[in-house]
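Hi there,

I know you've been waiting on this one. I reran it after we fixed the sequence typo, so this is the corrected version. Both the input and the resulting structure follow.
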Amino acid sequence: MLRAMTSSSNAADPLATVIALLRPQAVLSKLISGAGRWSVRYAAQHDPAFCLVLEGACSLDLDGLGVVELREGDFVLLPSTPGFTLASDLDARPTPTVPIDIRELRHGVASGPPTMRMLGGYFRFHPSNAAFLVPLLPSFVHIPRAEPGAVRLMRIAELIDEETRAERPGRELMLERLVEVLLVEALRFRFASIAAEEHGLLAGLSDPALARSLRLVHADVARRWTVAELARVAGMSRAVFAERFTRTVGMPPMQYVLEWRMAIAKEILRRERPSLAEVAGRVGYQSASAFSTAFTRLTGGSPSEFAREG
C-alpha cells in the first residue's frame, strides 16, 4: 500500500491517500434527543465528529462557522470540532456540557416523546499527520436530506452506530473502515461547493489545472519536483502557478511537496521500520542525512526518534 503511495504509474487519488494517512480510530456513537426548550454548549474538542438527524429539528451554532438549521435526514461532518451550541432555541441560555461516553443522551425535558433525535459520533485521527492533513479538508460539511447521495451517508452512519453497540470480533477494524468510507463519501459528495468556499485539497482538486499537478505529486512523491515543472504541467507560468496554488490549497507548492513527503515518511517509519536510506529514497531524498535534516526541521524530532515513539 505505501509503495503504491510513493511510486505509481497511475495518478494516485489524493483524497483517498489523505484519509488513509489520517487513520481514524476510537470511533464512538450515541443517540442524542431533546424535548421542550433546551440549549447546550460544548467547548472545542478538535477531534472529528459527525451527526445524522433522525427525527425533528434543531439549531447548530458553530464558532467561526455560523448557524445551520438541521432537519430530519440532514448529515453534518466536522473534521475538527470547534466550540458549538446545539439547541431547540438559540435564544435560550445554553447549559455548559462536556462529552460523556454513554449510549443515549437527553436534553431538555426528561420525560415524554422527543422533538429531536440524532445519531452523534466522534473519533480521532492519528496525531502523527493530523496537523498537516486536517487543514487540507473542509472545516464543515452539511448535506441536507434532499440532496442526492444523502441516503448513502445515512446508511453508513447507521452501520457505524450498529457496530458501536455490538460486541463482535473485528469491531474496531470495522469501525475504522466505516469511518473512512463515511469521510470519502461526505467529502466527494460536496466536492464543487466545498471547493468554492474554502481553500485546501478539495479546492485544489476542483481546479483542473492545479489538479493535474496535485495528482502527479501524489502519484510520484519521490520525483525531484520543482515549481517550474509543476507549473508546466498546469499550463501556467511559474509565478501565476505559485500564486494560484498558494491561494487555493493554502500553502506554497514546494511546502506542500515537503509536507506530503514527510507524511508518507512517517507512515513508512511507523509501519515498516526500514533503514533511513531506504525511506529517503522512497520520498525523494538522495541521502539519509538530507532526509533526516529535512524531517527534523519540519517535525522537531529525528526520524529515529519518531520510529521509536511511533
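Quick highlight: Strands lie at 25-35, 39-42, 49-62, 66-71, 75-78, 84-87, 95-97, 104-108, 116-124, 141-143.

Best,
R. S.
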